[in-house]
Amino acid sequence: MSVNALEAALWQLYLHPGDADSFRSDAASYAADYRVTDKERELLVSVDVMGLIDHGVNSLLVLMAFQTIYGPERLHDYFDIVNAPAA
């Protein structure tokens, strides 16, 4: 498990707009720069909010990265996902 690597990838997205642009252009290529497992890479590339949080990634960091990737106009989607009843 490489939660630290996932958090580093999300932090970079938040901190550097150019990295967020790279992620939006080719998420798989962006994720390849981080030492994560195949499962973790899939969580990152798909921006699987609950998957990332359930995996141990800090939920505030997931929120910050989500907003950076999708913009503030989609922030309600993050809250819908997080507040949805468990399946």
UniProtKB/TrEMBL annotation:
<dbReference type="InterPro" id="IPR011986">
    <property type="entry name" value="Xdiol_dOase_LigA"/>
</dbReference>
<feature type="domain" description="Extradiol ring-cleavage dioxygenase LigAB LigA subunit">
    <location>
        <begin position="10"/>
        <end position="62"/>
    </location>
</feature>
<dbReference type="InterPro" id="IPR036622">
    <property type="entry name" value="LigA_sf"/>
</dbReference>
<protein>
    <recommendedName>
        <fullName>Extradiol ring-cleavage dioxygenase LigAB LigA subunit domain-containing protein</fullName>
    </recommendedName>
</protein>
<dbReference type="Pfam" id="PF07746">
    <property type="entry name" value="LigA"/>
</dbReference>
